[in-house]
Amino acid sequence: MSVPQKKILVTNSKTGIQTSVLYDDLIKSAYANLSRIQLRNLNSNSDGNPTFYKYSKTQIVSFLSNPASNEKQLRDMSRYLYNISNYYRRLIQYFADMSTFSYVVVPYGLDRSKNINTTKFKKGYRATIDTLDRMNIPHEFSQAFKIAFRDDVYYGYK
Fold it and tell me: Residue 94: its pLDDT value, please?
C-alpha cells in the first residue's frame, strides 16, 4: 500500500505559469539550491575583496594613518561602504538602534511648601509630554546616530 503524495501549486515568478509539484520534490530542489550558495571567509587575509574594488588595502591604511588630513576620503569611503557592504551597514544600524532613547519627565523647581495648582500643573505636564511625542525622539535620534556613525559628524536642523 502506498502513501499518497501531497501536491503543491507553484507559480513560476518569471513566466507566471502555475504547475502542480510534489512536496518532496519541492523540498529536495530547495535544498539543492541552498548547497550552491557561496560563503565568504571573513577570516581571510587576502588583499582583494570581490565586493569592494574602489579602495585598496594600501589606500585604506594610508587614510587611517593620518585621519586629520584625509577626512574627506574617509567620509567618502564610509559612505561607499555603507551603500555597498551589508556587514558595515548592519553594524552601524545595530549600534545606532541599540539605545531606546526612553525618557522620563520629572517636574523640578516645585515649592512643596506652597499649594500647587493641580489643573495648571497637569496642563503644563501634558503639554510637555505632547511636545516630546511630536518630536518622535527615538526615531529622530536613531537616524542622527546612523548619520553620525557613518559620517563621524551630524548637523541636525528641522
Answer: 95
3-state secondary structure of 87: helix
Q: Which three cell numbers stand for residue 45?
A: 587575509
pTM above 0.85, yes or no: no
Q: Which 8-state DSSP code applies to residue 69?
A: T
Question: For residues 19 and 2, is the Cβ–Cβ distance under 8 A?
Answer: no
- pLDDT bucket at 21, cuts 50 / 70 / 90: confident
**Three-state DSSP class for 14?**
coil
Strand partners of residue 10:
19
Q: Could you tell me the three cell numbers for 134?
A: 511630536
Q: From residue 99, give the alpha-carbon distance in Å to each of 95, 96, 132, 146, 147.
A: 8, 7, 17, 12, 15
Sign of torsion over alpha carbons 22, 23, 26, 28:
negative
Positions of E strands within the chain: 7-11, 18-22
- Describe the crossing of helices 57-65 and 71-84 by its angle, rounded to 10 degrees: 140
Q: 47 is written with which cell numbers? A: 588583499
